Fold these 2 entries.
Entry 1:
Amino acid sequence: MTDSAAPRTVAFLGLGVMGFPMAGHLAKAGHAVTVYNRTTAKAEAWAARHGGKHAGTPAEAAQGADVVFMCVGNDDDVRQVAGDALRGMKPGAILADHTTASAEVAREMAAKAAERGIAFLDAPVSGGQAGAENGVLTVMVGGDPAAFATAEPLMRAYGRSVVLMGDSGAGQLTKMVNQICIAGLVQALAEGMSFAQKAGLDAHKVVDVISKGAAQSWQMENRAKTMLDDKFDFGFAVDWMRKDLSICLNEARRNGATLPVTALVDQFYADVQKLGGGRWDTSSLMKRLGR
Amino acid sequence: MTDSAAPRTVAFLGLGVMGFPMAGHLAKAGHAVTVYNRTTAKAEAWAARHGGKHAGTPAEAAQGADVVFMCVGNDDDVRQVAGDALRGMKPGAILADHTTASAEVAREMAAKAAERGIAFLDAPVSGGQAGAENGVLTVMVGGDPAAFATAEPLMRAYGRSVVLMGDSGAGQLTKMVNQICIAGLVQALAEGMSFAQKAGLDAHKVVDVISKGAAQSWQMENRAKTMLDDKFDFGFAVDWMRKDLSICLNEARRNGATLPVTALVDQFYADVQKLGGGRWDTSSLMKRLGR
């Protein structure tokens, strides 16, 4: 995607729907990429497609890498994969974690990495699978400015916006703000769309009209019509949103923020899970309101 | 603002922060405007500025008008002002109501008007005081298509988007969807901004970053930074929002829509009123969360 970063030896750990294309963009940018994935078949498929190498463990993949990237599931995965990677990494290297996780685990990993002379960056992303595939993610980073300066040009391979937000944990905290703003917004949109249908309006036309004014949002422009058409088999899954909201609500307990609507919407997502919608897009809040 | 509409004899009833500039745009577009306002001094000031006439009652202002526009406070005001105006209006004329009111009162006025051979259009607007002053309002209309075809070119004097949404009441119902989508959205934004501050982030920078993605909204782009700066002495007042949400919640009782977050945010606005914030902008939901 970019040729502005000098070729580096890097590793990418975790080839899910996000990591697979992100690692691909690094390879296309000319970096020497070694990948690791818990399920080996995916790592083999990636290496076959992109001509890179794959390794059997995080530590093995990380050996000799200037920068190690990772994108895994949750806090426990981060502890396990980062812990193993650090054992293989050389002093002076950088470990950048794209997982959406707690600020606590980010600070914990940063401390662990520092003991070995390694810099840890928490670097969660937004933009979803499409953003990863098209290389237009937003990357919110916390950690050491010098490490950021080294890693940032590489992250540009898949990030349209790559921003240092502060010390370790600040990337995760910024991602939390993002998810808090989305949760209540999507519920409000669902209530509006459900009301429009119950009121007998041409709801598609309503969206065209009100999206020109103060009710406008990315969600309205990109999700309202699929909500009205009862299409939810795409996008960002309810199960992942609940994981993220749990991180937000736990952090709010620590910092004293009051999140009444976020907490309520998290409960609504539990309803959606009970409807069998764990893998539906977050806009499926519409499903529990009815039409 | 526009010269596409043939000059007409019109009346404008209600010269509040919206009606005053809207009537002004009609005069500037070349129409012969007679205004009425409950407080006469405002009508005199308007006539002095725009060179139009002013009348002592709605019926008097409406006499001989092809189209009578009105923009007043609530359902009771609509009943009183429209009722009086209809007594002065000629058969074949059109009464267009820009008040945000119930769909019920719109249907009631449409029936009353029809008895006298007059068409009633419910035509609430969005875009606020700035939209009215700059002539860029969105006008959501319910009623007879032929009456809409006559009134629409005139409404273009202050409306950037003027759309027929359906039968009598459909304009009001569309405006309700707009307010429902905004209520929960603004609360979500307030929770996000409050959390960002409690987390010790540079919240202005957070807004810059996350407004590029799925959390983006008109409210985030236009209200997040004023919320962070504790500025609420502008915009759309909490008292008016509560009036609008009361209309939404009553209509939902009728049509069976479930609006849990809208109902909750309405209660939060009651808290803001208790804080003395009835005239603060709706983004003042931030005030009850703390920083």
Entry 2:
Amino acid sequence: MSIQAIVFDAYGTLFDVYSIGSLAEKLFPKRGAALAELWRDKQIEYTRLRTMCSTYKPFWEVTQDALVFTCKKLKLDLTLDAQNMLMGQYAKLDAFPENLGVLQRLQSMGLKLAILSNGNPEMLDAVVKAAGMQGLFNHLLSVDAVKKFKTAPEAYQLGPDVLGLSAKNILFVSSNCWDACAAAWFGYTTFWVNRADAPLEELGIQPDAIGADMTALLRFIEPDAGTE
Amino acid sequence: MSIQAIVFDAYGTLFDVYSIGSLAEKLFPKRGAALAELWRDKQIEYTRLRTMCSTYKPFWEVTQDALVFTCKKLKLDLTLDAQNMLMGQYAKLDAFPENLGVLQRLQSMGLKLAILSNGNPEMLDAVVKAAGMQGLFNHLLSVDAVKKFKTAPEAYQLGPDVLGLSAKNILFVSSNCWDACAAAWFGYTTFWVNRADAPLEELGIQPDAIGADMTALLRFIEPDAGTE
């Protein structure tokens, strides 16, 4: 295989965005799951609207806007305390359990590893540190550098530019099918971590490979390593 | 007021996209509402992804893709017959009941009226005809002309270009808050038909006016006309 580097999406792929659901459930009993889900959907929607309309602002602020909207929509009283707790949780999301081991193994194989995320640099630094993943990535790439969120080509272009490789020789890994599909449109080799057993998006393109979690990625990269 | 023309969004604003819910309910008992809602969300999502990634294809096809995904996601068996019935329904959506009278009144005031829609021309022709709205619009503008869906500026630019007016002198009317906000970003004077009593999107901008239905638009245009 000619894969020389792996670029990971952050939120939803390395870090579990739904892990804030438990805090949300404490703050708003019986509404935590609905809050977490709509917050995530709205956050992504706002990134797309702001990208198409050239009204970028940092992901942290977009995330906060999405939280405010979500609570209005669900008729939940979002106190400043609750807002700070939920946003604070966003800065230290849980990593999926298998990820640290998989990343260490990939690093030991000599692959360059990077994150390419909608998150602004401060968010990425915080969440990587909280997950104990310092030192595993050669680059933390934020779309903030181009002021356009994924799925703008300018955002995906950061990978080849910084790594000095063609997109085809970079494996782009995301748990968001739309992200993997758009990266495939861009030219990356792509891997969709389909944790939720979701159907493929009907976009007329598909990822080069699909697995249920990050250990499946390891088997894709190193076919003989997946037997333990 | 310096409004010289009114540009309407079509789906959701003039035509009720959720009216397919009743057909969906017949085809898939107890799942009709879920189907209609996810179909709509996914349809809009695909327009945004395809716009950001320059992979445009006509709205009819995108709508069909979204239906296929929705049924896979909801684990509904979409037969070809059911697909054709649902898509056929999309071509003749119900108009909201007050719309015809309001449009006739606006036309009689000498205002230029247009539709600016994600729908491709064939879809717009069909749905306008089915609703008995022929002759009410000076222009049926489809984003197909620029191969980018809303909220791309190129899509909104069709209004000023074809009408020969500045965006500020055109009232853009949509029941989708994101559409009204993006049109405001673009430079239109904007009116949000907030039929569902939804909260304002947290996008840092708001429509110039908001009303619960199209009769409220009439009162906005012609303040003395709203008393009957």
